[in-house]
Amino acid sequence: MRKQRVENQVTEELTHYFEQARKLKCPPSMKQNLYQKIGLNQGSNWLNSSWFKPALAFSFVAVFSLGLVWQNHSQTQQDQLATAEKDMQIAMHYMQKISAKTLQDVNTHGIKPAIIVPVSKSIAQMSMAQI
Amino acid sequence: MKKILLLTSLLILTTQVKAEDVMQKLQAMIGVEPSVEVNLGAAMLGLLSGMTSEEKHVSDVMKNLTEISVRVYDLDDDDFKGDLNQIKSFINATADEMKALGMQQLAAIREDDSTVYIMAEMGADAMQGLSVIALDDDSELVVIKIGGQIMMKDLAGLMNRFDVDLSDIDVDL
């Protein structure tokens, strides 16, 4: 009778102990060790794999470098464009200057040469105004 | 067919060489570096055409251009030791040669102190190129070459679009 009571008490205490133990959370390091001991590789998560961090660093450097190269290329193109526009303005300035020069002579068709461009200019302006 | 292609290529090559020759010969004769030198090739003109894509007319005109070259020589410069009469004769002879090559003289001025020639290389329905040689007031020589398909009214449109007050531009004129 007494032996049975002791066994029941031991059973209750053990049940209580394991219930309490089950409620406790296992620390991650312990969990990791346990997984390793029983042969379950928790490292199958690619976030923890050995290549992930170097690959991430490399990707970051590559993207950053590409960004720099692209920005540099874009800046160079903008500079080239600005220079080209300035060159075009200079070229057209001299064209304007020559075509607007006051002339006294007439050309082989009996027309004052300077008239050619101003007339075509006004035609161009008229056609642009119509658009 | 082969002969026609060969002749066309030869003619284009001859004209291009001619334009380069004129600039080189003038440079050698004047003996000073140009005060303004502009070289816009097809690539840069294409870029500019893209930039002006919102202005469709200007963009279309620029697409058809292959080259714009400008040389301006300051003959008032102390370094200039050339002979003005020799330069005038060269300009007149060059204009005659261009006419002999089939280019059309759109305008010519022969005054005591000014010699100007505007020569056009004509195609079937548009100009294929324009060359301008202008010796103004015996003090400034301007040589301009515009290559590509262009019409006079288009050129005027370009002049309107790009001619600005050059005092706003940081360039030594």
Which characteristics define this entry?
heterodimer; A: mainly alpha; 3 domains; 4 helices; disordered C terminus; B: 6 strands
What does this structure look like?
- The complex is a heterodimer of chains A (131) and B (173).
- Chain A is mostly helical and 131 residues long.
- Chain A folds into 3 domains: 1-49; 50-99; 103-131, no CATH class.
- Chain A is 75% helix and 0% strand.
- Chain A has helices at residues 2-23, 28-37, 52-99, 113-130.
- The longest helix of chain A is centred in the middle third of the chain and has 48 residues, at 52-99.
- The radius of gyration of chain A is 44 Å and the shape is rod-shaped.
- The relative contact order of chain A is 0.03.
- The model of chain A is unreliable at 102-108, 113-124 and 126-131 (pLDDT under 50).
- Chain B is an alpha+beta fold and 173 residues long.
- Chain B has one domain (2-35, 67-159).
- Chain B is built from 5 helices and 6 strands, in the order αβααβαββββα.
- Chain B has helices spanning 2-30, 42-51, 56-63, 84-100, 152-162, and strands at residues 36-40, 65-74, 104-110, 115-122, 127-136, 140-150.
- In chain B, strands 1-2-6-5-4-3 form a 6-stranded antiparallel β-sheet, sandwiched between helices.
- In chain B, strand 3 and strand 4 (115-122) form a beta hairpin.
- Chain B is globular.
- Residues 6-17 and 168-173 of chain B have low confidence and may be disordered.
- The A-B interface holds A 77, 80-81, 84-99, 101, 103-105, 107-108, 113-114, 116-117, 120-121, 123-125, 127-128, 131 and B 36, 38-40, 44-45, 47-48, 51, 57, 68, 70, 72, 105-111, 114, 116, 118, 132, 134, 136, 142, 144, 152-164, 166, 169, 171.
